[in-house]
């Protein structure tokens, strides 16, 4: 049924979902974008341009996120071992700890959802979100 939900109904549900997700996320000590970049640098993605590509954001946007992480003591900039003119971004011990703590909070929330709706429904939801996101960027 293509018209079962109005545009306003769909918008309201999406906004409610995002607002609740962000409300939960704000209980963490870093913003969601900082969490994602911190995860990437903890996993070995250390070149700012690669971070921007992975995050699908502009260079100025990634620079702002990196600045916030550096200013908070979660990351440091170091000269690239390959080319001293460029920099790498590395996590600090504090940054690794913040990432682990925040990741644990996210995992707890995900498990809460899975416990309520079941793994199959959660997996189906994630598949649908990925498909919709892909369609919207085409």
How would you describe this protein?
The protein is mainly alpha-helical. Strand 1 (about 75-80) and strand 2 form a beta hairpin. The chain contains six helices and two strands; from the N terminus they run ααααββαα. It starts with 6 loop residues before the first helix and ends with a helix. The mean pLDDT is about 85. The protein has a two-stranded antiparallel ribbon.
Overall shape: it is: globular
Could you state the oligomeric state of the chains shown?
Answer: single chain
- Secondary structure class reads mainly alpha
Rounded to an integer in angstroms, the radius of gyration calculated over CA atoms is 18 Å
Helix content: 55-70%
């Amino acid at each position: 049924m293509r018209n079962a939900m109005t545009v306003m109904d769909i918008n309201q549900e999406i906004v409610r979902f995002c607002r609740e997700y962000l409300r939960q996320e704000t209980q963490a000590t870093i913003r969601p974008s900082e969490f994602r970049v911190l995860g990437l640098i903890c996993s070995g993605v250390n070149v700012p341009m690669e971070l921007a590509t992975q995050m699908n954001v502009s260079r100025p946007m990634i620079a702002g996120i990196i600045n916030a992480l550096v200013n908070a003591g979660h990351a440091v900039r170091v000269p690239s071992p390959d080319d001293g003119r460029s920099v790498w971004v590395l996590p600090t011990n504090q940054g690794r700890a913040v990432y682990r703590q925040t990741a644990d909070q996210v995992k707890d929330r995900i498990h809460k959802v899975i416990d309520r709706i079941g793994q199959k429904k959660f997996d189906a939801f994630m598949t649908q979100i990925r498909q919709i996101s892909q369609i919207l960027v085409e």
